Amino acid sequence: MRVHVADHPLIAHKLTALRDKDTDSPTFRRLADELVTLLAYEATRDVRVEPVDIVTPVAPTRGIKLASPKPLVVPILRAGLGMLDGMVRLLPTAEVGFLGMVRNEETLEATTYANRLPDDLSGRQCYVLDPMLATGGTLAAAIRYLVDLGADDITAITLLAAPEGTARLEEQIADLKVPVTIVTGAMDERLNEHGYIVPGLGDAGDRLYGVV
Ligand SMILES: O=P(O)(O)OC[C@H]1O[C@H](OP(=O)(O)OP(=O)(O)O)[C@H](O)[C@@H]1O
Ligand SMILES: O=c1cc[nH]c(=O)[nH]1
Ligand SMILES: [Mg+2]
Questions:
Q1: Does 145 map to a domain?
Q2: What is the value of pTM for the model shown?
Q3: I want to staple 79 with a disulfide (CB 3.0 to 4.6 A). Which of 73, 107, 115, 204 is the partner?
Q4: Ligand 2 pocket, 196 CB below 6 A?
Q5: Where is the Phosphoribosyltransferase domain (predicted)?
Q6: CATH number at residue 14
Q7: Whose C-alpha lies nearest to ligand 2, atom 8?
């Protein structure tokens, strides 16, 4: 598993505003949207392309276009939905599948409550969106699920990650034969006793959509 921590002052600047407990929901949504576009630029560095011949007003030339099959973007509900628009702005031809997952706040175990994905992901490059990699349980289950459907290249984009969760995720998917990359806006200090990222930003889903 490859882990890429974005190192860019604009990302750090926007993350600082996102973390602030006084940042309201509309501003939080806008920042999450802007951040994912910046992170997606890095995350799509290895997106598959194929050559295409075109003619400019001056001369014929060979360029590139996104290869088929199109990449699949998979936001993990709820909080991953806050990253979807920013991602598809950069990859407008991508298809989108959905996974609904929730972490039990006592046991910290993730369960899946919704799934709207193609039946066969053979040969597909997948981009998973989830703002928080905390214990890593949610992403481990999501990645395993996509690989079981045939995905052969997975990149997860997170806004924040915790070192313990990243290590645990790596252990939990060590047997998978497909390349997995994590692109994150920051690697925070640690998890607290409730499984929250420290300093973190609190509950991403609640901050995007309100407390349920
Ligand atoms: O790495 P983990 O320890 O598994 O935790 C991370 C998960 O927790 C949050 O989701 P949550 O369960 O709060 O659902 P929500 O997005 O609906 O709020 C977050 O959006 C991740 O999906
Ligand atoms: O810090 C955390 C950990 C899990 N889920 C969140 O939304 N925030
Ligand atoms: Mg939540």
A1: yes
A2: 0.96
A3: 204
A4: yes
A5: 5-210
A6: 3.40.50.2020
A7: 203
Tally of domains within the chain: 1
Which residues contact residue 131 at a Cβ distance below 8 angstroms, ignoring those fewer than 6 apart?
32, 79, 80, 82, 83, 158, 159, 160, 204
Q: Is the pLDDT reported for residue 212 higher than 80?
A: no
Question: Omega before 30 cis (within 30°)?
Answer: no
Question: Per-residue confidence at 211, pLDDT binned at 50, 70, 90?
Answer: confident
Share the mean pLDDT of the chain.
97
Q: Which atom of ligand 1 is nearest to the CA of 137?
A: 4
78 is in an annotated binding site: yes
Domain hosting 113: range is: 2-49+63-192
Q: Which ligand is nearest to the CA of 108?
A: 1
**The one catalytic residue among 103, 124, 168, 207:** 103
Angle between helices 9-19 and 25-43 (to 10 degrees): 150
Known catalytic membership, residue 103: yes
Instruction: Look at residue 204 and tell me if it is in a domain.
Output: no
Q: What is the pLDDT of residues 143-190, one digit of tens each?
A: 999 999 999 999 999 999 999 999 999 999 999 999 999 999 999 999
Residue 107 counted as domain residue: yes
Query: Tokens for 28?
Result: 């939080």
